Model the fold of this input.
Amino acid sequence: MAEFVRLDSSTSRHTMDKSITLPPDEIFRNLENAKRFAIDIGGSLTKLAYYSTVQHKVAKVRSFDKATKVNIPLYEISVQEEVTARLHFIKFENAYIETCLDFIKDHLVNTETKVIKATGGGAHKFKELIERKLGLKVDKEDEMTCLIKGCNFVLRNIPHEAFVYAKHADSEFRFQTTQPDIFPYLLVNIGSGVSIVKVESEDKFERIGGSSIGGGTFWGLGALLTKTKRFDELLQLASKGQHTSVDMLVKDIYGGSYGSLGLTGDLIASSFGKSATADKEFSKEDMAKSLLHMISNDIGQLACLYAKLHNLSRVYFGGFFIRGHPVTMHTITYSINFFTKGEVQALFLRHEGYLGAIGAFLKGAEEDNPNQYSWGENYAGSSGLMSVSPDMNPMQRARSGTFDMLEMDRLERQLVNLPLLQDPSSYIPDTMDLTEDALAREYWLYCFEEALDGVVKRAVASQPDMPEAAERAEKFRQKYRHKLQTLRHQPFAYGSLTVRSLLDTREHCLNEFNFPDPYSKIKQNENDIALKYYQKAVKSLEELSWEERQFALVRGVLAGNVFDWGAKAVSEMTLGPQIWHLGLIYLFIFFSSERPWLVDSYDQWLERLRGPPHKCALFFVDNSGVDIILGVIPFVRELLSRGTEVVLASNSGPALNDVTNGELQILTERIAAMDPVIQAGLREDRLTLVQSGSSSPCLDLSRLDKVLAQVVRERQTDLVIIEGMGRAIHTNYYAMLSCESLKMAVIKNSWLADRLGGKLFSVVFKYEVPAGKPSQGSAAVTPS
Amino acid sequence: IFFSTSRHTMDKSITLPPDEIFRNLENAKRFAIDIGGSLTKLAYYSTVQHKVAKVRSFDKATKVNIPEAASDKLYEISVQEEVTARLHFIKFENAYIETCLDFIKDHLVNTETKVIKATGGGAHKFKELIERKLGLKVDKEDEMTCLIKGCNFVLRNIPHEAFVYAKHADSEFRFQTTQPDIFPYLLVNIGSGVSIVKVESEDKFERIGGSSIGGGTFWGLGALLTKTKRFDELLQLASKGQHTSVDMLVKDIYGGSYGSLGLTGDLIASSFGKSATADKEFSKEDMAKSLLHMISNDIGQLACLYAKLHNLSRVYFGGFFIRGHPVTMHTITYSINFFTKGEVQALFLRHEGYLGAIGAFLKGAEEDNPNQYSWGENYAGSSGLMSVSPDMNPMQRARSGTFDMLEMDRLERQLVNLPLLQDPSSYIPDTMDLTEDALAREYWLYCFEEALDGVVKRAVASQPDMPEAAERAEKFRQKYRHKLQTLRHQPL
Done:
């Protein structure tokens, strides 16, 4: 069964502090706009879900009227209120259900809500209470259907949702990349009993098996054997015990291994076999451990057999037996490895506890068709994995009144894979997994903490006319620092820890406290200045010979890319905007003498340029100002002149000083007014601007705007250019594309440069042609 | 493969005269022994001298001289001594092993025997004792190989060896006809743990799976939960308990069935699920029953999955968890029916307890090539199914010193199917199955008992020149009447 029901929970409850330790309005957020409630009441935990809208500030850019053009900046920045949809999921112990319902009732404003969807074994027990307290009709939904719906939803929408657990590995959690096709899979739900469900599509699943030996058996037999009534305590006992004193091993019977049958001596021949005849007393710990092994091994074997019978390779485990318990994840993983000899991996889910609630919510929201949208985990509003696990947070657990939260934002755009990925199922955006690399993790966490003061200052400075900005900025600082601290102890809290996730978490936290775009003014300024140099730059480039020009264009992109406010080394230069051009000249000289670069396939690129033009180039751009205007646009201009169509992909929302789609639209218009090549490109639709769908300084090619994917396909794109450290080094450095690709970046971080074998301001120029594709030049990358 | 270290005390007197148990020891050779957790199985090969009636045509040349009275006889009848090969298998509790070894030593005449084949988990423990007592070298044989060899042998040689168990049917036991081709099959051996073995041919088998949740788990957890240390007593407790007071059923969670998943309300959702949160005391009987269900269902499901995965339809169950215990045969059968919806039948073996000993013996007798002969069960020298089961024979069990025997005679000729049978696998020689037809059984048992006097008279009359014939005929009468009485209570 999916969930364990404590039929007599009132009688056997241990006393606990019922005070809620977090202010409830930080838990049940955005209740005033809440609608579509769903609740999943399990044996000990209640999971509440609701849909709400969040008003938050967004920075918008708008061209000034051409009539008023004189003496004012390039474009107008305005902060607007925007309403976005957000899903809230909150998990708390059943003991708090009444307090929570009261709080919800008091804050619920929306009167359209008439119904609450309910699922879980406990739904019928609390039906009357919920109806009375909330005045909503409880509408019960099938438990298994909700579970599967929820599972499909998280697998599809949350990157790094699934993970492999390895107790003794460098990193306990190895997160799996989101698969483009999640079906078919096997879900083994270990509640009081075990349900084994084969899921074939969104709407098709079948319970193909089950077992009565599950979490309830561990709990029930454990309670009888050890007189310990609490499930968590039983697990604690088990983690300290020695099963070999209770179990009969192969070597206890045969004196060693049973070689001819391939059974090692340490294999358990008979669970509790020793207690059959030995008259001695067994310790609670040992019996609990033996019981845990017995049950985990049994479930593991059944899961493997069903997976084999139905030819399924993905097996997810969930249910209260697993939920946040490293002990049970370890024994299940061990069992699966043993029985399948590594052919099948035991997979666990970060948000496993929420599946039923998510599913029940989705059932109620079917008319809104939530599956047509893409959703993103909001790192600012979500607790990490195992935030309430007793093993991870003994202090927190002792207080017992802990709440776990998950928030998901509805993304404006549906996100899909870049059609040019060579193998979408093996694509991993991030170059470095900080969960697995302790040294790298240390460095980057330190780095982000160091930079925090600067970010706070920048945030305050971005809103000079708002007196409470300093206060909000301080809240932001506390929240983000807390996240960083959590990640130091639990690097796996939000899936694989990467530079990208650290950057994204910072953006989410800034948004959370209404700093939608701290760099908007800086970007505006930079763009303004850079634009003034555009014509001069183009003219000087045109004076060069063809070959000189190709090199100057590349150098220009690289030099421009140095102007990155996100990079520590650059932000420390404290150059005033007035002297950007001086810096530019300096850097031009700086780079011209640097070849061969750290990664240098420029010769192959040049060779390729001598050949026929590309059909269409997709260019993921990076920073605003010098980078986009004096580096990227001239490069694009050359491509257009060669007869190559260009698609410029920029961020949908702000991140650092990255140019956003809105800004880029204005910039290209302005440039078009000065430059007939760009103008013709726009007019003839050979230069197109698209949104990436992202608001991150990094780039996940598996989650891109659907429109972008469509344009890429329609235009038969045969070249992908990725620029900048965030997009081409932190992510996608190893990404394999099915067409030619060019990755250009300057490494503006000495630690990373060191890691890659170079030094600060090393250049990466990586031109690749997929194997088997004919090309003009050689495809080889030649590092220095 | 379970081996017990702490024996409870029991009456060590042997209640049957040992020479009725260890028969034909004087000619015995090729010993094999299988020592399990509680029972020892001894096997030996011997030869039996017995009288056969031979007929012979009179010589034409000598025809003239024969007496007038005999001259009109078609042929001559003579009684001759003939030596035939017989396999003896004896099963007794480990407690008697020393007494038995002494008896064997005293009666062992054949001095060619140098070696005794040994198998079973206890073989290494008693190795020294056996070597000292018998003066034979203990030669250990692989347990699983012996088990499979023995299984193949009984399936091939003993008609009605395998049976299906149905607790509530007219006849609890439905015997299977011997299949011309016994392979492939799945053997699920439930000892302390469970071994699941796929047998593909005489020499090819593979342990494809197993589980640590087996007889030892029932015994071990049962002992911890109920403070009852004896396996048989635990089964007795289980047969009296109600699992529903300890187990959480589907209806306990959902108030009824879970229709959309096809789960009935009475299905066990969680074994021992109720004891997780209820503060009450549970009865020993109920806990034992819940444990029995838990283990039987689990093994049943595993067996089904392996059978499906390897496409096997014949699944035999054995091991001490099963051996002669209707309770466990019932729960295993129930579980198999549940999980395969009747597609796979749980099969049990009449001589399951002897498999290891038979196999070990066959390993030692390979030079005699016993597989080239056909063998027949000697009903006169063999105990019936469950002769020592506590449920069937509580009286006998109380005495505890019971011996179970199996004797097999080597047939002079190898027996095969009539090639003209339309379907050898469905051929059943007998027209009427008296195990299934109580009225017919009553009638025929009565009939044979009625006829016994006549048969005895005829036997005595057939040997007019032998004065002790009457005495022997009387022994025959007693033995056969005892068999008939046994069959009345245990038609199987």
